[in-house]
Design a protein that fits this description.
With 301 residues, the protein is of the alpha/beta class. It has 10 helices and 13 strands. The structure holds adenosine-5'-triphosphate (ATP) and magnesium ion. The site of magnesium ion has 3 residues, from loops.
Length: 301
């Protein structure tokens, strides 16, 4: 089974306000509610591809309930830990002549709830996959992802980490199967700005020396670079198309990579499938469907 963990999911409240005036009462012309978070996005894209996963992490309050129900109505299994008190955050996205975002903090996570999540790691089995993705509530330290991996008892769990700075660096000693920084995040890990493919390969190999088995660096419309545990370096451009929305493109790349690797155990295919999924989301209004991913894949050799 694939388990995704989203520590601080959110409900996005997206409003269209043609002329936003600060300090006045503004009325929305359109409004919509979406739920998300990196691990949840991975679960949704896997589901779109017909692959089962369990979405886990922390939720709270009525917004947390909205997320659980939303996943349930899509047919996606979830196993979130309910926090009390508190409320899963709401991120306000105001679409006007410019876009203004007001992102919430999210609930405080108490130690008992952390322990419950750590306990869940003990139930993972050989061959399972664990995706740890996204930002972490402020009150948890940078060792949290590392602690989760450390609680796994099974010997052969495919751990995938999409996190920033020390949250990611602290996991490397556990030899995660895959880490997926984007280019800017890779630079932040080493306090450098990275511009060229050869720099990407250089720093990706550094992450390998520090423990990562495979390193996938995404570069937006420039595609991705994959450095594998069998010493291969694969650089691939992204498919071309009309970009509509890049929210969740990175998560779609992760989901597509997992799907491709599960299907073939072949890194070339996994990367190609991942890029098709990432770009299919970039070319869609929401997270990509299977149909869109396969359409992008077919035009992409
Ligand atoms: N403008 C684009 N055109 C084509 N494909 C894109 C574009 N932006 C993103 N993608 C696709 O999505 C993948 C991941 O994108 P990106 O590097 O932006 O991830 P990220 O920064 O981790 O995103 P996220 O905001 O979801 O965390 C790319 O490798 C590519 O396949
Ligand atoms: Mg990302």
């Amino acid at each position: 089974m694939i388990y995704t963990v989203t520590m601080n999911p959110a409900v996005d409240y997206t409003v269209l306000v043609p002329q936003l005036v600060l300090g006045e009462v503004n009325r929305t012309e359109r409004e919509a509610y979406f739920f998300g978070g990196k691990g949840i996005n991975v679960s949704v894209v896997l589901h779109n591809l017909g692959i089962e996963s369990v979405a886990s992490g922390f939720v709270a309050g009525f917004t947390g309930q909205f997320i659980r129900q939303g996943l349930h109505s899509l047919g996606i299994k979830s196993d979130f830990i309910e926090l009390t008190p508190g409320m899963t955050r709401i991120n306000v996205k105001i679409k006007s002549d410019k876009e203004t975002d007001i992102n919430g903090i999210g609930p405080r996570v108490d130690q008992d709830s952390v322990n419950t999540l750590l306990k869940k790691m003990e139930t993972l089995k050989d061959g399972d996959c664990l995706v740890l993705a996204g930002a972490v509530p402020k009150n948890l330290g940078t060792g949290i992802y590392s602690n989760l991996i450390n609680s796994i008892k099974a010997g052969n769990v495919y751990v995938i980490v999409d996190a920033t700075e020390d949250y990611l660096l602290n996991t490397l000693k556990h030899k995660p199967f895959l880490v997926k920084p984007n280019r800017a995040e890779l630079g932040q890990l080493f306090g450098k700005e990275i511009h060229t493919d050869s720099d990407i390969v250089f720093y990706a190999k550094k992450l390998q020396k520090m423990g990562a088995r495979n390193v996938l660096v995404s570069i937006g419309d420039k595609g991705a670079v994959l450095v594998t545990e069998n010493n291969r370096v694969i650089c691939r451009d992204a498919p071309k198309g009309q970009v509509k929305n890049t929210v969740g493109a990175g998560d779609s790349l992760t989901a597509g990579f997992i799907a491709g690797y599960m299907h073939s155990a072949d890194f070339d295919y996994a990367l190609r499938y991942g890029l098709a999924a990432g770009s299919a989301t970039a070319f869609s209004d929401t997270l990509a469907t299977k149909e869109k991913i396969e359409q992008v894949l077919n035009g992409f050799e």
